[in-house]
Design goal:
This protein is of the alpha+beta class and 74 residues long. The protein has one domain. It contains 3 helices and 2 strands, in the order ββααα. A two-stranded antiparallel ribbon has the order 1-2. The radius of gyration is 23 Å and the shape is elongated.
Length: 74
């Protein structure tokens, strides 16, 4: 199985991707040859996100307020 990343782009009324030449060659992809495409949605790496948000209050104070029925102001 060959893998690569691509950004879909508007192509008329559709959305398309281009195949890198390396993938075309390694996969022996020819014009009008049917291929199977599997779409995998990129997921957020929680290890990178965890701890990146700076809060004005400690998480313990926020939890205590939530338990007491506090609602955030908008």
């Amino acid at each position: 199985m060959l893998e690569f990343k691509a950004k879909p782009r508007k192509w008329g009324n559709s959305i398309g991707i281009t195949l890198p030449n390396m993938i075309v060659e390694e996969g022996n992809i020819k014009d009008n040859k049917e291929i199977e495409v599997i779409i995998v949605e990129k997921k957020v790496d929680l290890k990178k996100v965890f701890g990146s948000i700076k809060l004005k209050e400690s998480t313990q104070k926020i939890k205590d307020k939530m338990r007491a029925g506090w609602e955030p102001t908008h």
